[in-house]
Structure formats: structure tokens, C-alpha cells
UniProtKB/TrEMBL annotation:
Keyword Manganese listed: no
Descriptive protein name: Pyridoxal phosphate homeostasis protein
Cofactor: pyridoxal 5'-phosphate
Record lineage: Bacteria, Bacillati, Actinomycetota, Actinomycetes, Mycobacteriales
HAMAP family named in the record: PLP_homeostasis
InterPro entries (alphabetical): Ala_racemase_N, PLP-binding_barrel, PyrdxlP_homeostasis
């Protein structure tokens, strides 16, 4: 699989064995949690201020059941169709589903039906579509505004400068509980460049807090960079491969490009 990855990704430095038993999932979860706690402590933060969101994209339901038995109570998915299917397959389990990838307005109905959280809000059109469906269902939804902190064209999310105006639009959508911000850092082996993305998101959040004290959350950091993210203030880290095992395809396969 090596040649499929850009040679300079941080995630390339580690390959993660797939967990195949409840015990292996429990061990991976405990190991990630221990590293989260240590990173928080190093940064002078309370470990309990950092939430671990396990990301289960591409992982089939039989293995998800093992992960839930090992203690996962919430799962993140970046594609709506896959998340919807899994939420139906695992309907007998108490799992809260987080949609963490780009949403098209025609899938808003699905998200409104099964998701507990949506972390990739980046347009008024999607906010409108979600709110309409949620109002009809009598539900609310926790949302994070996605920000493109690396200025890479292939990434979704608002530019940092567009965030204040966007936030002013959101109170019109009463079913959306805006919790904070989400980003994907640049894929780079250069730690300084990764860290810079996290700092940009933190500044966006700090400025927004002046206007709305409820916008506290920072969802940033994945398997390859979550410790850096925690040092920079992450309150939610989205970790897939370090819990479930390496994926066989490059990340570009899971993050469709374009807008
Ligand atoms: C896949 C994914 C993650 C987790 O990445 P890993 O390398 O598996 O830890 C985090 N955030 C988003 C938006 C993702 O799609």
C-alpha cells in the first residue's frame, strides 16, 4: 500500500494493525486514551476536556460490534450513505452517530433522521436544508462549522475570514446547536505546518467566543496528529486508524475533492 500514499504524510510513519477482537479494541482504545491524557497533561489541560471520537469509515458492521462491545458509544463517519446504512445495521446498539464529512443538501434528510452530530457545516444552504428536516422531525442537532485552515483547494470548509459572517446567519436555524469548529490539518510530515492549521482554528474559535460564549469546541486531530492538536487546544479528536487499523486506500479516496 505504500506507493498509494504521498511519501510525506505524518500518518505514514505508523502502520496500525487491525483490531479483530473485543480485547484488541479495548487495548487500542485504552492506548489512544492514555496518549490523549498524557498530551493534555503536558499542555496543562484536564484530560477530561478532550473527547475521543472513534472514526469507523470503511469498517464493516461485524467489527463495529466488537468496538462497541469494547466501549465505543459514538462513531464518526464521513459519508452519509455509509453512516446511514451502519446506523440501521447497528440499530440494536446504543451508538450516537457523528457525520464528519461534507454534506450535499439532498442528503440532509438522512442526517436529520439518524445523526446526533454534524461536524462539517460549511454553507448556509446546508444549514437551511438541515434545519427544515430537523424541524419537521422535531429534533435538534449539534453542529460544528468546518474551516479550511490549510488553504488547500481540495479541502472543504470556510476560509477563516468567512467565518464571522457565516456565524451571523446561523441563529436563523433554531434546530442547529452550534458547538464550535472542525478542521483537517494539512497532510505534511512537517509538524510546524500541521500545528499552524490547528492554531488557525483555535484563533477562529477564540474570536467567535467574543460573540457567542457557546462556541467552545475545537474538533481537530486524527490518528497521525492528535497529540499536536491537543497541545493546540483540541476538545475533540477524531481517531480512526489508531483504533480500527490502517486503511488500505489513501485519504484522498475518502475525501472527495471539489466543492
Ligand atoms: C477518516 C477521518 C478521520 C480519522 O482519520 P484517521 O487517520 O483514521 O485517524 C478524521 N476526520 C475525518 C473528517 C475523517 O474523514
Amino acid at each position: 500500500m505504500g506507493p498509494l500514499y504521498p511519501a510525506d504524510t505524518l500518518t505514514l510513519m505508523t502502520s496500525y494493525p487491525p483490531a479483530q477482537t473485543v480485547g484488541e479494541f479495548a487495548a487500542n482504545l485504552a492506548a489512544v486514551r492514555a496518549r490523549i491524557d498524557a498530551a493534555a497533561t503536558r499542555a496543562g489541560r484536564a484530560p477530561s476536556d478532550v473527547r475521543l471520537l472513534p472514526v469507523s469509515k470503511t469498517v464493516p458492521q461485524d467489527r463495529l460490534r466488537l468496538a462497541v462491545a469494547a466501549g465505543c458509544t459514538e462513531l464518526g463517519e464521513n459519508k452519509v450513505q455509509e453512516a446511514k446504512r451502519k446506523s440501521e445495521e447497528l440499530a440494536d446498539l446504543a451508538v450516537a452517530w457523528a457525520v464528519i464529512g461534507h454534506l450535499q443538501t439532498n442528503k440532509a434528510k438522512d442526517v436529520a433522521a439518524f445523526a446526533a452530530e454534524f461536524q462539517a457545516l460549511d454553507s448556509v444552504r446546508v444549514a437551511e436544508a438541515l434545519d427544515r428536516r430537523l424541524q419537521a422531525a422535531g429534533r435538534g442537532l449539534d453542529v460544528y462549522v468546518q474551516v479550511n485552515t490549510s488553504a488547500e483547494e481540495s479541502k472543504y470548509g470556510l476560509s477563516p475570514g468567512a467565518v464571522p459572517d457565516f456565524l451571523r446567519e446561523l441563529p436563523a436555524f433554531a434546530s442547529l446547536r452550534v458547538r464550535g469548529f472542525m478542521t483537517l490539518a494539512e497532510f505534511s510530515a512537517d509538524e510546524a505546518r500541521v500545528r499552524k492549521c490547528f492554531r488557525v482554528l483555535r484563533r477562529v474559535r477564540d474570536r467567535a467566543l467574543d460573540v457567542d460564549s457557546g462556541l467552545t469546541e475545537l474538533s481537530m486531530g486524527m490518528s497521525g496528529d492528535y497529540e499536536i492538536a491537543i497541545e493546540e487546544g483540541a476538545t475533540c479528536v477524531r481517531v480512526g486508524q489508531a483504533i480500527f487499523g490502517s486503511r488500505s486506500l489513501p485519504d484522498s479516496h475518502y475525501w472527495p475533492t471539489g466543492g
